[in-house]
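Appendix C reproduces, verbatim, an entry submitted by the partner laboratory led by Prof. M.T., so that reviewers can inspect both the input and the predicted structure.
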Amino acid sequence: MSHTPLVSLNEYLAASYRPDRDYVDGQLLERHVGEWDHSRLQALLLKYLLKYEDTLGLLVVPEQRVQVTQSRFRIPDLCVVRGNPGEQILTHPPLLCIEILSPADRMSSMQERMDDFLSFGGGKSLDCGSAP
């Protein structure tokens, strides 16, 4: 059984990671980024969504820290908010969080990410593993 050392919230907030990492209950979680397909899709989605910022009053940002609970910070690939949020780390639910999946992503960890975002935004949990 592997043991992941715990990191304090203050240490996480003061540190800079490349790429940035999720913080979940004291653990730093790596994100699968940096491969061509992932990066290219992120760039294309960002370019597409940026066209709507002025007309819809939106702001689109890549890899923005979102504090989904007191002890959980997630970093979606893209975030869409209405107007300027006025904070460096989002503590209010964004309008949209976009996650680009990589082949190495496991459904169990993606389910947990989705549950965090949906709970934060007042939505219901979705089950990735079941068919309609």
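The chain has one domain: 9-120. Additional entries are available on request from the coordinating office.
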